[in-house]
Design brief:
This protein has 100 residues and is mainly α. It has a domain of 60 residues. Helices cover 54% and strands 0% of the residues. The chain has five helices and no strands. The longest helix has 16 residues.
Length: 100
């Protein structure tokens, strides 16, 4: 079965596998808005290290089941083409040398 993605991201296979392995997490995932799913996916795929990505996937499933609808302390997806990056997020990205 295919998991529904977000507005800018599709669900990568490792994340899909983890969500599909837990019936409750799967139902909760399907109940999220496309923007919420997008934030979770971006939060998982935007890390640099595989070890961190695996931790994010485990945390995502756990937090979904705790009732979280979006990742905590996340600046938000910078990949959306339907929304301009806010000045505060642009400042963070500039400090991180992601945008100039």
């Amino acid at each position: 079965m295919h998991l529904v993605g977000g507005v800018a991201h599709s669900v990568p296979s490792d994340l899909a596998e983890a969500i599909e392995a837990d019936v409750r997490a799967r139902g909760l995932w399907e109940g999220l808005t496309p923007l919420s799913r997008n934030e979770w996916i971006c939060w998982v795929v935007s890390v640099k290290r595989d070890e961190t990505r695996k931790k994010h996937i485990v945390r995502l499933v756990k937090q979904l089941k705790e009732g979280k609808r979006r990742p905590c302390c996340w600046i938000g997806c910078i990949h959306r083409s339907d929304k301009k990056i806010s000045p505060s997020v642009a400042g963070i990205l500039k400090k991180r040398k992601i945008i100039v």
